[in-house]
Structure formats: C-alpha cells, structure tokens
C-alpha cells in the first residue's frame, strides 16, 4: 500500500508540474427555490486573462448512487459549458421527496477547475410559496376567506405533493394600536366569526409545512368592513341628514327660480314706463303697456295737423321785377279790366292785409299782369313761392278759392 500511495503522489506531482496551476473553482454555491422551481447560482473570481473564455458545467446525481462503491455514479449534465453563473434545474423534474447531489466547475479550452458539490433535498430545502390568491367576502358580521393554494412549476396544487399543507390566517382591526390574531387551518375556505359590526378588518395569510417547520411569506394585506344591524339612533340620524339635504335643495331651487324671474322681468319688463302722452299713440289700448302697430291711415292721422297757410308772408318774399323786364302786349280795355277785376277780387281774399299800401298793391298787380302774359296763373305763382320757401314740405295742390287747407308735414 505504501508503494501505491507513493506512486499516486508522484503522478499527481508530475501532472501539477506539466499542467501548471489549476483553474479557480466557483464559490458561494447556493440554491434559489420556490415550491418546485430550482435554480443553482454561484460566484467566480474574475481574472483579466481567464474571464472572457471561462464557461461552467453543472451536473446532478441521486445521492443513493454515490453509496454504491461497486458502480461509478451516472452524472446527468444540465448546463454544459454555459457562460452564465447560474443554472435552472426546474425543467429536469427533480422528485420533491428525493435527495440529490449537485456539482459545478469552471472550464477553459485547456483547463478546468475542481468540482464544487452541493446536496439538495427539495422536500427539506425548497422554500414554500404563499397562496396564489386570497378573496374576502361578507356574511353579515362574519368574513369569508377563500384561499387559492400555491402551485408547482407544472401549475398543479402543492397539496398534491405536500398533503399536510396548512395556512396561518392573521387578521386585525384596521386601527391604531391593535393586536393581531391568528387562526390555523388546513382548508381553503375559512370563516372569521365573532367580529365587531361595522368595523374594518385586514387579513394576511401564509402557507405552512410543519414537518420541516417551513412557512412562506405573508400575502399582501386585504381589508374589508363588516356589516350588522342598524341601530335606531343611526336611522334617526340618517333621517335628519336626508331631511336637511332635501330642505337645502328646495330652498336653493326657490332662490334660483326667484333670481331668474327677477332677471327676466328686469330684461323684458323694465320699471321705466312710457309717458302718458306717448302711450295713447303707441299703445294698442288705453291703460296697456303693449305697443301696437299703426296702419298707414292711422299714421297719417297721428302725424297730420290742421295747418293755416297765409299768403301774406309769401307776398313779402316775392321779388317784383322792373317794368322794363315785363313784356309789353296790347290788350283790349275790356279784357284788361275784366282781368283786373278778377285779380283784384282774388287779391282781396288772399294777398290783402291790414296796413298794406297802395304801392304794394300796384306792384303786385303789375307782377300778375306780366305773369298772365307768360301764361302763369295766380295759383301757380303761389305754389312756386311756397316751394322756394320750404322745399322740404310735402303739400297737396292749393285751391285758389280756399284759404285754409290740410297739409302733411
């Protein structure tokens, strides 16, 4: 035996001298697990010369195979020369109640490190996950909790592989300085009895495996308010509150209606009234403020007045031309006398006034004689004089026999 050992040591020394320094091995080999999801992770000291070309190989074998000295174990490779510093073992399908040995080493093109071993028993070492979902419901003053069990990587319930799975139900009142209470159950439907009415309660649940004393993390808290019978003073209080709200709504409606009425009245029916002397002309009936439309006949009656036209101012405005400007015609004495008589009779009714002198009469008679020679009548001369005095007047033809006529102004 001593010779054999010496030979082995000699061979190892020669291998060390020829190959050189061994490659650094992976460090801090750990397992990241949740239910049946397993990932082997490690660290490796990086070196500037070796790190770009370093790869890692991961293998596993059942622990029972290592106990058989007569037969070498059959290692199964999961990740072969992978550049990653982790290896996912979930797809391998490791049995939950079996025990395995995992190993990993670093590789280069020419060298490799020694293997780093890690024992793994999923039933003992794998972490337990919390319930997938928690639902809260009310049953009067009780709370009904529905728990969805944690699932495996194949989306099957964990209870299939862990029959003794249980749950810790932790609940408390949602108020300051309240103590938590815990209820342990192995069913997925839980009732929380003897709770206060109209009180908020929060619930959080974790999975539990008593054989290896494993428990999951707590689920996020969920809160719900319990119900109960309404007390008489609460009913009375609600009635008073509703009555006050209705009163305020009615009062506000009345105020808004009155405000709108005042605005409409001030806009369409102002307080300033028409004068009385305009109402009798513009309004449809006496005592009414509603204006009425006027017909053309009514407009003429309202806008026309009895106007007295006197020819005396007209005579003052007429300019008498000199005798040489008038044409000389030979008239018979009889016709001239008749014309003078007719003109004198007309002048006495239209052109005469108190205090007029004989010079004015003679000048007017001479003017009319000259106008007659040109074919003008006394009425035409009066009409032209009035139009020249007031060109804006609208009047009807004057009657030579009448001294007073109606005129629209």
From TrEMBL:
Gene3D superfamilies: Immunoglobulins. CDD domains: FN3 (cd00063). Keywords: Membrane, Signal, Transmembrane, Transmembrane helix. Residues 327-336 have a biased composition (Polar residues). PROSITE patterns: FN3 (PS50853). SMART domains: FN3. Residues 22-126, 130-229 form the Fibronectin type-III domain. One of its GO terms (molecular function) is interferon receptor activity. The keyword Transmembrane applies. InterPro entries: FN3_dom (IPR003961), FN3_sf (IPR036116), Ig-like_fold (IPR013783), Interferon/interleukin_rcp_dom (IPR015373), Type-II_Cytokine-TF_Rcpt (IPR050650). Residues 1-20 form the signal peptide. One of its GO terms (cellular component) is plasma membrane. The chain crosses the membrane at residues 231-261. Residues 327-364 are annotated as: Disordered. Coiled coil: none annotated. Pfam families: Interfer-bind, Tissue_fac. PANTHER family: INTERFERON ALPHA_BETA RECEPTOR 1 ISOFORM X1, INTERFERON/INTERLEUKIN RECEPTOR. This is Interferon alpha/beta receptor 1a-like.
């Amino acid at each position: 035996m001593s010779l054999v050992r010496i030979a082995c040591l000699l061979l190892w020394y020669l291998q060390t001298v020829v190959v050189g320094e061994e490659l650094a091995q992976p460090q801090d080999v750990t397992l990241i697990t949740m239910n049946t999801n397993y990932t082997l992770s490690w660290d490796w000291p990086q070196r500037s010369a070796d790190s770009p070309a370093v790869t890692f190989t991961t293998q596993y074998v059942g622990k029972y195979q290592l106990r058989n000295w007569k037969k070498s174990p059959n290692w199964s490779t999961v990740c072969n020369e992978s550049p990653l510093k982790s290896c996912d073992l979930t797809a391998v399908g490791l049995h939950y109640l079996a025990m395995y040995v995992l190993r990993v080493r670093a590789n280069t093109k020419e060298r490799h490190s020694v293997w780093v071993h890690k024992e793994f028993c999923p039933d003992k070492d794998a972490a337990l996950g919390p319930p997938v979902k928690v639902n809260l419901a009310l049953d009067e003053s009780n709370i009904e909790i529905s728990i969805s069990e944690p699932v495996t990587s194949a989306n099957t319930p964990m209870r299939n592989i862990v029959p003794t799975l249980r749950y810790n139900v932790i609940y408390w009142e949602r108020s300051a300085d309240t103590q938590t209470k815990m209820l342990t159950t192995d069913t997925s439907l839980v009732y929380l009895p003897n709770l206060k009415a109209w009180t908020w309660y929060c619930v959080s649940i974790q999975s539990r495996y008593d054989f290896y004393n494993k428990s999951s993390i707590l689920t996020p808290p969920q809160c719900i308010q319990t119900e109960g019978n309404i007390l008489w003073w609460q009913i009375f209080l609600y009635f008073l509150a509703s009555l006050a709200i209705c009163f305020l709504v009615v009062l506000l409606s009345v105020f808004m209606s009155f405000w709108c009425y005042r605005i409409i009245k001030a806009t369409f029916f102002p307080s300033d009234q028409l004068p009385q002397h305009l109402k009798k002309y513009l309004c449809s009936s006496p005592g009414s403020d509603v204006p009425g439309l006027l017909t053309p006949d009514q407009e003429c009656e309202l806008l026309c007045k009895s106007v007295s036209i006197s020819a005396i101012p007209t005579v003052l405005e007429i300019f008498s031309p000199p005798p040489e400007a008038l044409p000389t015609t030979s008239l018979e004495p009889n016709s001239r006398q008749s014309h003078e008589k007719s003109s004198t009779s007309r002048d006495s009714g239209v052109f005469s006034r108190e205090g007029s002198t004989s010079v004015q009469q003679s000048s007017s008679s001479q003017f009319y004689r000259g106008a007659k020679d040109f074919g003008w009548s006394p009425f035409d001369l009066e009409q032209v004089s009035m139009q020249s005095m007031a060109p804006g007047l609208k009047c009807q033809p004057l009657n030579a026999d009448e001294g007073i006529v109606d005129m629209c102004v």
